[in-house]
């Protein structure tokens, strides 16, 4: 008996010394001095913890993990977590809350382009049931005031994104709640192979420019199983993107799932292979939107929106080749990006505007636009819906309202 016990004890000591039973190195931000009382600036503690995490080669214990524990609220100033890291992959588990300063005066770096940035970190897996709160209301108020005064800029511009990923190939982001960002909530830039799932993103309907997820210059990005309600696009796919699948998203309020805007300031932009599937739009300004600026060049092609549910969406289907944000001088140009091979299939539900479909194309126009099994009725039972189209060609199958520019097929 004694011997068995002793050998068990020895085995345990030996095992813990070798790190068995732990599997990976776990670094808790609290052990690096983070206080988590919602008042103390924990930025430096997070940076120290990141340095330890990123410097760990993970050779013996698997990918190292940074823990942001439950039950605490960490206040962070604008901060950038830089790679490359020594380990092939790194994990960040967010269980607690992370908050931004609550007033503009408290932001220490008003030049920052994002609040929390990850740059050049490969195979980053950020997950957990925690919350990121950008505390954007002060920024929104100032932006609205500045717009009303027609002022060109406010003294300190809001960071364009709360949580930003730049050159993070193999990124996974899941489970978190993101609320009230000063502008956009999540940015994916120059990333290849991204999986975003089970997020909850929320900001008020009237908060300015609070996009849910913005993707630019990225390929093989999958966004799925998430609920997004904001004051701007739920998801926006920008220039340089290809192979983007967006599936099982509940959007609303917001401006829909958009491709663009593209071609701003005469720019050359391309977007292809964007597939939006099984998404619902409730009380949104738009649902399936493609927007290009006059004067731009490049193309948007091979886009599909299918199995879409609409509940009182204002402009469910829209291609706008005359996009202009109304703030800058809008160009009067007949050239624009070429829009082609866009398929809309299985749309059901209601539109607030009687103009349920708007294909407002210019220049070379929009070609091979396909509508298949579309039934959009008015949210007001006494009214009917109609479609507007200009410089558009393609085919429609069982589509209501009828789109005059498209040749009717299937009979
Ligand atoms: C969409 O949701 C369904 C039902 O929850 C699930 O079976 C399917 O895997 C999801 N698809 C994607 C791509 O997330
Ligand atoms: C992306 O969506 C398209 C169209 O629905 C589909 O053919 C393709 O297999 C999807 N890709 C992945 C990796 O799921
Ligand atoms: C579509 O997405 C919803 C969630 O938005 C999900 O409940 C449903 O099961 C999905 N359906 C399919 C066929 O994936
Ligand atoms: C744009 O240009 C066209 C043709 O050059 C002209 O007819 C139209 O009035 C112009 N519109 C504006 C708003 O300047
Ligand atoms: C379109 O949807 C409305 C409302 O759900 C329904 O009454 C109508 O029968 C549908 N039309 C077709 C052709 O399916």
Automatic annotation (TrEMBL):
Gene3D superfamilies: Single-stranded right-handed beta-helix, Pectin lyase-like (2.160.20.10). Residues 1-23 form the signal peptide. One of its GO terms (molecular function) is polygalacturonase activity. It comes from the Eukaryota. Pfam families: Glyco_hydro_28. Keywords: Cell wall, Cell wall biogenesis/degradation, Glycosidase, Hydrolase, Secreted, Signal. Its main location: secreted. Belongs to the glycosyl hydrolase 28 family. This is Polygalacturonase At3g15720.
């Amino acid at each position: 008996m004694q011997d068995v016990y002793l050998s068990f004890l020895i085995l345990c000591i030996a095992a813990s010394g070798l790190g068995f039973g732990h599997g990976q190195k776990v670094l808790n931000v609290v052990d690096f001095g983070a206080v988590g009382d919602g008042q103390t600036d924990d930025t430096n503690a997070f940076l120290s913890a990141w340095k330890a995490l990123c410097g760990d080669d993970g050779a013996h214990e698997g990918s190292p993990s940074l823990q942001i524990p439950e039950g605490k609220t960490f206040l962070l100033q604008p901060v950038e977590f830089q790679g490359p890291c020594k380990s092939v992959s790194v994990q960040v588990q967010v269980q607690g809350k992370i908050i931004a300063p609550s007033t503009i005066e408290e932001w220490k770096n008003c030049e920052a382009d994002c609040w929390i940035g990850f740059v050049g970190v490969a195979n980053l897996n950020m997950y957990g049931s925690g919350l990121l709160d950008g505390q954007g209301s002060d920024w929104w108020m100032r932006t609205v005031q500045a717009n009303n005064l027609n002022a060109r800029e406010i003294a300190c511009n809001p960071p364009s994104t709360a949580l930003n990923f730049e050159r993070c190939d193999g990124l996974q982001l899941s489970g978190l709640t993101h609320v009230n960002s000063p502008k956009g909530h999540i940015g994916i830039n120059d990333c290849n192979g991204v999986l975003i799932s089970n997020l909850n993103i929320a900001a008020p309907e009237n908060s300015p420019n609070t996009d849910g997820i913005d993707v630019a210059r990225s390929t093989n990005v999958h966004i799925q199983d998430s609920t997004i309600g904001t004051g701007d696009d739920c998801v926006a796919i920008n220039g340089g993107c290809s192979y983007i699948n967006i599936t099982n998203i509940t959007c609303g309020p917001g401006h829909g799932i958009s491709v663009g805007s593209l071609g701003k300031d005469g720019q050359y932009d391309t977007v292809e292979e964007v597939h939006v599937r099984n998404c619902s739009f409730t009380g949104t300004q738009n649902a399936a939107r493609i927007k290009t600026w006059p004067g731009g060049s490049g193309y948007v092609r091979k886009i599909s929106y299918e199995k879409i549910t609409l509940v009182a969406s204002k402009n469910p289907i829209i291609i706008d080749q005359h996009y202009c944000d109304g703030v800058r001088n809008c160009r009067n140009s007949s050239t624009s990006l070429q829009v082609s091979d866009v398929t809309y299939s299985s749309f059901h539900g209601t539109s607030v505007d009687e103009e349920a479909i708007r294909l407002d194309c210019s220049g070379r126009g929009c070609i091979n636009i396909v509508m298949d099994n579309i039934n959009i009725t008015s949210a007001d039972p006494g009214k009917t819906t109609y479609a507007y189209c200009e410089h558009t060609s393609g085919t429609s199958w069982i589509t209501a309202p009828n789109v005059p520019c498209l040749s009717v097929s299937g009979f």
